[in-house]
Design brief:
single chain, Quinone Oxidoreductase, Chain A, domain 1, Rossmann fold, seven-stranded mixed beta sheet, six-stranded parallel beta sheet
Length: 352
């Protein structure tokens, strides 16, 4: 089989390799790969900024945003040949810490977790892959063209779960949400916000291309003005921050309604420095009972929430998020940015 591999820590090592077909172990599914999504983490690994190969190996099979179709499944697994599935990314640490022992491995305390396609476990960017039945999640059969969006949807499903849990510490009835950033994470966060009945606003800097159209088709409102101007007028009850840009983060924090919840999903650069009125931010957060929370990764509960959210979504709208599909043999094109990219997907089954 063909697989997309990289040597973590070595620039220019991304390559399409011919590997032996995998043999499923006890309790594992054998899956025909259909597609993998390409995200910022994949690009960081390719640029030698991140990633770990499996122990004793030089190369890592890339790909954590998976989609496949079951070829074989063990008896009693709950899966059958032909099922549409995704593989969970993270595995709990072997110790395990208290969070991992309780299934909350997205909140691992000691950092010994592993991740498919990222940290010490091969990913899903191959024509065949195996996954433990306990770490596979079935999708609605009608999602074959867009189910590769599952993993980023899990990230925002968790983010929204955190928002509602935090808000639930007292009476909570949010009306308006602001999403900063109209990439895949931001778009899917907006989608779930709309599904929850909120008035949703999305802020991004571009003024043309697919992003404004996608937001409007969702029934949300698109903005491209200064974040302070937008947020101060909206006074959102909830902010899902999906850029990691320091100036946007603190503008959002300063401009929520009382009892506002800001959930950070974007990772900030360690290079850029942002000047902040820390005293003013502190005063507002204390006097208004505001909360800022970081959120990363997802556990099995969030995968199921994401599967439900995608099943409820408009399929044509979801398809609009996938702005480029690149065949496996042209993998390098998937890592070159396009002017109108939202989500780029590598197809593994010969589709285009």
């Amino acid at each position: 089989m063909r697989a997309l591999t990289v040597v973590p820590g070595t620039p220019g090592s991304l390559d399409l390799a011919e590997l032996a077909d995998p043999e499923p172990r006890s309790g594992e599914l054998l899956v025909e790969g259909l597609a993998v999504g390409v995200c910022g983490t994949d690009k960081e690994i390719v640029q030698a900024e991140y990633g770990w190969a499996p122990p004793g190996r030089e190369r890592l099979v890339l790909g954590h945003e998976s989609l496949g179709r079951v070829r074989t499944a063990p008896d009693g697994s709950g899966f059958s040949a032909g099922d549409l599935v995704v593989g969970v990314v993270r595995r709990p640490d072997p110790v395990p810490c208290g969070a991992c022992a309780r299934g909350e491995f997205d909140n691992c305390r000691n950092g010994r977790y592993t991740e498919r396609g990222i940290k010490e476990l091969d990913g899903y960017a191959s024509e065949l892959w195996c996954v433990e039945a306990d770490y596979a999640v079935a999708l609605d059969p009608g999602l074959a063209e867009v189910g590769v969006l599952m993993e980023p949807t899990t990230v925002v499903a968790k983010a929204w779960e955190q928002v509602w849990r935090i808000g639930g510490r007292a009476w909570y009835e949010p009306k308006r949400a602001l999403v900063t950033g109209a990439g895949p994470i931001g778009m899917l966060a907006a989608m779930i916000g709309v599904q929850q009945g909120l008035e949703v606003h999305v802020l991004d800097r571009v003024t043309s291309g697919p992003k404004p159209r996608l937001v409007e088709a969702l029934g949300a409102t698109y903005h491209h003005d200064d974040v302070d101007d937008v947020a101060s007028k909206l006074q959102p009850d909830v902010v899902i921050e999906a850029t990691g840009a320091g100036s946007l983060v603190f503008s959002a924090i300063r401009n929520t309604a009382p009892f506002g919840v800001v959930c950070l999903t974007g990772v900030s650069s360690s290079v850029r420095k942002t000047q902040v009125d820390t005293e003013g931010v502190n005063r507002e957060m204390v006097l208004e009972n505001d909360v800022v929370v970081g959120s990363v990764n997802a556990n099995l509960r969030h995968y199921r929430q994401a599967a439900d959210a995608l099943a409820q979504a408009d399929r044509d709208w979801l398809a609009g998020l996938i702005t480029r599909r690149v065949p496996l043999e042209s993998f390098e094109d998937a890592f070159e940015p396009g002017p109108d990219d939202v989500k780029v997907v590598i197809t593994l089954d010969g589709g285009d």
